[in-house]
Amino acid sequence: MRKLTTYILFVAACVAIGVLSGIANMPGEWYQALEKPPLNPPNWIFGPVWAALYVMIGTALAETWFDENNRNRLIVFGLQGIFNICWSPAFFGMQNPVLGLAIIVPMLFFILLFIAMSWNPNRKAALLFVPYAIWVSFATYLNLAIVLLNP
Prior knowledge:
Blueprint: H1 2-24, H2 29-33, H3 46-65, H4 71-93, H5 97-118, H6 123-149
Helix pairs in contact: 1-3, 1-4, 3-6, 4-5, 5-6
Family: Belongs to the TspO/BZRP family.
Membrane topology: Multi-pass membrane protein
Pfam families: TspO_MBR
């Protein structure tokens, strides 16, 4: 029962942080006015995708939490989480795509590092981060393109 409670708490915390960040940093008229790159998805897709990703992120955290010798992976998880939390306020809140890019690149690095570090000790945690890595890679493309298209 303790394990299930931990999973529920970690998933709920990750989803709650994501929802709060999204509400506090809604894309507004500024974002709508930006020149967007090819492959820019419709705005409605971001909420459901991030909700699913936050469930997987919380599950990966719970998986890692119960592993032995998890300290370094938990640190890397925390670092990617800090960058994740900072991206929306930088990009949308401060309306600063350059700062957003400066945040999302190391975020992607730490996501990939978490996958690499988790691959052998906990394949499930690593695989739960793969869709996250793919989405953040795509978001990095979008962020970079917005920087280049809106000097």
